[in-house]
Design a protein that fits this description.
19% of the residues lie in helices and 23% in strands. It is an alpha+beta fold and 664 residues long. It has a four-stranded mixed sheet, with no helix packed on it. It is globular, with a radius of gyration of 29 Å.
């Protein structure tokens, strides 16, 4: 999301000055149909759903571009009581974005900090999960700062660098189909108290078995040909009543929840498949979506024309005056103090010292604040989570869109909440509000969409730019980011370098620890090795190990499905060339031979056996290049720049509810 403007002018593409021909509009709309809609889910009671506006082939990108992802780091730690190292998980603190978080390694951002939450908008938040109808595969995001340099741009660190988390069709998808992503079974199991017994993958086997027994009850046999009306033991009305009893029986189970809701659908599924019934019921006519849904692909990201702004949102089709630019369902965060970041201090409890937060020193705020709407007289902030609205930028005078509360979406948007107190909002954790971006004038295809973030935001940005000074890569040694660990010696000559860039070079020999004293790697990366320190071959005496263990690297032992669990920060103590004798003895692959070198590695691990904890040192010999990789050090990305701009966007008085202004 882009938060920057240095002047009062903006460059628009030439289409903004071209008269729009109404006949060509209609032709353009038919050739450029809406690809994605938000509408009422086909899952009863699920609220919002995302739907396909066209057919998508298996493997095809669903939509126009991937979604942005937003790291929230050490959120629980920063909301723990002062002097404590654990969070205050009770009534006075709850973080509503937890329902929209994804596994950081799946996004690619597990190296941002010690405890990372990855919030994703668009496909990361709007679609529902239905384990029998999963039709969208999610992929990782890309770290891409849109060309902004942390040493020369005051906009660096003000927007998420995590870009293009793509979603592809897991199978052929028909137009009108509701789109479903995989939340993971544990997502529902951990929320059973709030959501009840939602069916998971295993639930459907039991449900299908029950239906076959139900078929025998209806016709006295288990033959499909007998399942006709004149052979039924019960009338249609009696079946309806019986099915209602079955579905509402007080002793719930996930398998029973997997049964069709309608008694006629139950009969169809007896000798067929529950999935086929659910697929049929999960499709809405595109005409219905066009009339009752809201198109979410009227905008797409591109490089903004505003200086230091990174990416912006650009119209994908003509948007008439007062037309919908984008819907914006919201997550409401009642206390914006929960995004504050605190400095560390040591606390001595008489047994051991521990690092706790220093409540007296606020040193920053979570990046997510920059994507929220708020008001100077309220603690409430609102996070919009639909596709691409995060890219909509600010201009104080030349804005072409505005915000209003959603219209004609009563199944989701609760208008009554706007008159409720903040205490009511705190008690309602689910999303139930929606804003809309609407055009103030005709917006042409390719034109950047802009709104007014408010005078408070504008003044804060101007103050930020006034106090911001360029710096040099040489000064980037533990100075520009929070919480980076001190190194043995400054090394800023390469500036900030991502590990992904270094790992692209598979030919240059890696430096030993001795060589790194004179020619260190950039401070933002570290060397890691893939070694299974828990494999049985690593133990000489079970369950105890010796303090030092040495062995050759073994691909079968040290790689595999759980390779992420085998990555350790390591030191390269020795490098040696591969000779012909080694090639035959160690059975090297061509990639290893082309690299030409093998390595000896050392690392330490901390282990526990019962109540006993101990350190263990490993030496791994004959490790090939593929056993080694570069990793990004925690807290070194642009997200943690000490001088990064932070401020919520401001909703105007006529939009922000009076009942929420609790700071008057």
């Amino acid at each position: 999301m882009i938060r920057c403007i240095l002047g009062s002018t903006i460059i628009f593409i030439s289409a903004a000055a071209v008269d729009h021909d109404r006949e060509s509009e209609s032709e353009s709309e038919s050739s450029n149909p809406c690809l994605l809609y938000l509408a009422e889910s086909t899952i009863p009671g699920a609220g919002l759903g995302m739907f396909a506006g066209k057919d998508f082939n298996e493997g095809e990108l669903v939509g126009r571009v991937g979604d942005p992802a937003f790291p929230t780091v050490d959120q629980d730690w920063h909301n723990s009581p002062e002097g404590a190292s654990v969070t205050r998980h009770n009534w006075d603190y709850h973080w509503p974005l937890v329902n929209y978080d994804w596994n950081p390694p799946d996004i690619g951002m597990d190296e941002e900090g010690e405890d990372v939450s990855a919030t994703v908008t668009g496909f990361g938040a709007a679609p529902n999960c239905h384990f029998r109808l999963l039709n969208v595969d999610e992929h990782g995001a890309v770290y891409d700062g849109a060309g902004l340099d942390r040493y020369t741009s005051p906009g660096a660190g003000a927007f998420t660098p995590w870009f293009n988390r793509s979603s592809t069709a897991a199978n052929d998808i028909d137009a009108g189909s509701e789109l479903f992503v995989d939340y993971g079974t544990n997502w529902f199991i951990s929320r059973e108290e709030d959501m009840g017994l939602v069916p998971v993958t295993e639930s459907y086997e039991g449900a299908q078995s029950f239906l076959k027994e139900y078929g025998v009850l209806l016709v006295g046999s288990n033959h499909p040909n007998d399942l006709v009306e004149d052979k039924m033991a019960l009338t249609d009305e009696a079946q309806k009543d019986l099915w209602q009893v079955i579905k509402t029986f007080p002793y719930a189970s996930r398998a029973r929840q997997a049964l069709p809701a309608d008694h006629n659908d139950a009969v169809k599924a007896i000798y067929g498949d529950i999935k086929s019934i659910e697929v049929e019921n999960s499709i809405r006519p595109v005409d219905f979506l066009d009339k009752h849904g809201k198109c979410v692909d009227n905008i797409e990201p591109g490089i903004s024309s505003i200086p230091h702004a990174g990416r912006g949102a650009f119209a994908t089709r003509f948007i008439p005056k007062d037309g919908l630019v984008a819907p914006a369902p919201l997550v409401h965060i009642v206390d914006k103090n929960t995004v504050k970041l605190y400095n560390e201090r040591l606390s001595d409890n008489g047994v051991q010292s521990k690092v706790v937060r220093d409540e007296s020193e606020v040193i920053g705020q979570q990046l997510i604040l920059n994507y929220c709407f708020g008001h100077p007289n309220s603690t409430v902030i609102l996070f919009p989570y639909s596709s691409n609205v995060a890219y909509i930028n600010h201009h104080p005078t030349e804005f072409n869109a505005r915000l209003r509360w959603a219209k004609n979406f009563d199944f989701f948007h609760n208008e009554g909440w706007l008159n409720k107190s903040t205490d009511f909002l705190e008690e309602n954790w689910r999303s139930g509000l929606m804003l809309e971006f609407v055009a103030l004038r005709d917006i042409n295809p390719g034109e950047e969409v802009l709104i007014d973030y408010g005078k408070e935001w504008q003044l804060a940005w101007e103050e930020h730019v006034k106090g911001w000074e360029p710096t040099s890569p040489e000064q980037d040694f533990n100075n520009l980011t929070h919480w980076t660990k001190q190194m043995d010696q400054p090394n800023g000559k390469d500036g900030y370098v991502r590990a992904e860039m270094l790992d692209q070079d598979r030919e240059t020999p890696l430096r030993t620890v001795h060589e790194q004293k004179d020619d260190a790697y950039p401070h933002s990366v570290e060397v890691k090795c893939s070694v299974n320190a828990n494999h049985r071959d690593a133990y000489l005496f079970f369950p105890r190990t010796i303090p030092f263990y040495t062995r050759d690297w073994d691909e079968e032992v040290d790689t595999g499905e759980h390779i992420a669990d085998h990555l350790h920060s390591c030191r390269i103590t020795e490098r040696y060339e591969i000779h012909e004798d080694y090639e035959e003895e160690l059975d090297f692959e061509e990639e290893d031979i082309e690299h030409g070198y093998m390595y000896t590695l050392e690392f330490e691990v901390r282990k526990e056996v019962g109540d006993e904890a101990f350190s263990e040192r490993h030496e791994i010999t004959n490790a090939p290049r593929k056993a080694l990789s570069f990793a990004n050090r925690d807290y070194t990305s642009d997200v943690f720049l000490k001088k990064a701009f932070r401020h919520e966007m401001i909703l105007p008085d006529e939009v922000f509810p009076e009942a929420w202004k609790n700071l008057k």
